Structures are given as C-alpha cells and as structure tokens.
Amino acid sequence: MYKTILAAVDRSDEAKRAARTAVMLAGRFEATLVLAHVVNERDFSAFQYYVPSAWEETKKTNEAMLEQFTAEAESGGVTKVETVLRSGAPKSTVPRELAPEFGADLIVTGASGMGTVEKLVMGSVSSGILRKAREDVLVVRKESAGGYKKILVAVDGSEEAGLAFEKGIQLALQTGAELFIVHVFNSYLLYSTSLNARILRTIEDDDRKMLEDYKAEAERLGVADVTTSLLYGAAKLIIPQEYAIQHEIDLIVSGASGMNRTERLLLGSVAEGIAHRAICDVLVVRQPLEHREQ
Description:
This is UspA domain-containing protein. The chain is α/β, with parallel strands linked by helices.
C-alpha cells in the first residue's frame, strides 16, 4: 500500500509516538522509512545571531536524535531507513520539499510538535502539513505501535471516500482490526431544503444500500469483523466527537474531500474537521496527483 513513509520527528512526545507508528507501518508494508527533522528557521535565525556556532551545535544534536530514531526503527524490523536534516518552515518544508524529494506516499506526523506558541497562534505544524501535502497524511495522537484494533472509515460515495475505503481495508487486513464503515446523512440539508419526505426516504434507502455494498466488499476481501452505521448530523463533529469515542476507535480514515464542494470551500474539508477534533489517529487519503481537479 505504501512504499515510502516520511515521518516528521523532533524530541516531543507526540513526534516519538508518530515515529513508532511509522516504524510499525513501514515494517508491515515493507516500506522505506524516511526520518525527517526540520529546524525552524524563523526561530533559529535570531538565536544564531548571538551564537554563531549554534547551527553546528544544533546539527550535531539533531543528527544524534535521528541516529537514535534510526536505531529504534531497525530494531523494530525496518530494513530500509533514511534520514534528512533541513532548516526551514516545518509545515511547508515537509510536504512541499521533502515528500516529493524522497517520493513519499505517506507523511506521518504527531498531532502537535514542540512549537507551542506557533500551535496556539497559527495552528500546529501538523495542521500545516495536512493542508499543504499532496500525499496521504497520518496524524498520530495515541500510542499505536502495536497495531490498530478498531478502524473507522468515513464514506459518502465519492471517489475520495472509495480510496479511503480501499486503504482502510488494507490496514484492517494488515493489523487484524475491526472495521467500522460510517456514513453521515447531513441533517442540515434535512432542515434547509424543500425536499419532501418521500425523496428523503429514497436518499436514506440509497445510503443504506451504499453501506451494505461497502460491507459486502470488505467481507469479500477478507475482513472478518465489519460494522456499518448510518448517522445523522455534521460528519466533522459526530464522527470524531461521538461515534469514535463511543466505539473506542483508534484510527479514522477519511478522504481528503468528500462530495460537498460548497462546504469544503467555505468551511474547510470534512477530513480536516475530523483531524482537528479527533482524540485518536486520523489518516487523510488523497487522490493520486494526476486524478485531481485542476
């Protein structure tokens, strides 16, 4: 499923959890693991003015950190490990420079890094990576190095959701996880349109049939434990804040954007809303570059 996994690391606990999850996935998919650290150039440049030797000292410290991460990855069974140390803006350098340079098809990042002020004022590094990446992004919040146990896939019939479903299936098969397939009927549409009851029932029937088809396909591919649910509300709220907590989900898989283009443009994608609100890991799946809208 993934051939090259790029893990953004630093000395924070969040990044260490992300690195362990990246090691787990690289081992299961026999992928190359790239361990990347980006020194925040904006913060570092002012410090370097007063300490001219600061870059060499920082370089040595961070190279030692990357060596430690490499040793842990190799002891975890990953046979192909590379490291890279750069300076720049982490939220841009990771997705826009390093991911293309190494041919990564998955970026793994902790939910927040060491830049507390930036996290509070401008949004975390992980949010920047999520918005700028062209590749799939896994935002890690919990310790999942042992593998996932319960995976939720959000579906809506769109092409992006289909891709998320396919990757959710592969992850469930690799980790032996239970699979929860969820579709949210947007109740806002229920009260803001003039659709009559018969049309609404038809839409609901179609949604249930869609879930049945997804379940049949998951079982055909070998997933042993599959649950489907049709929910009502706003997907970016009900999936991470209610359903995922109630069912103790440890990974949510969502397409980068769904069918609701207006909501995506005005309010941000459902996937981004889920990633911001979830207390578990979130995998945001993107279309291959050549298939995206121009």
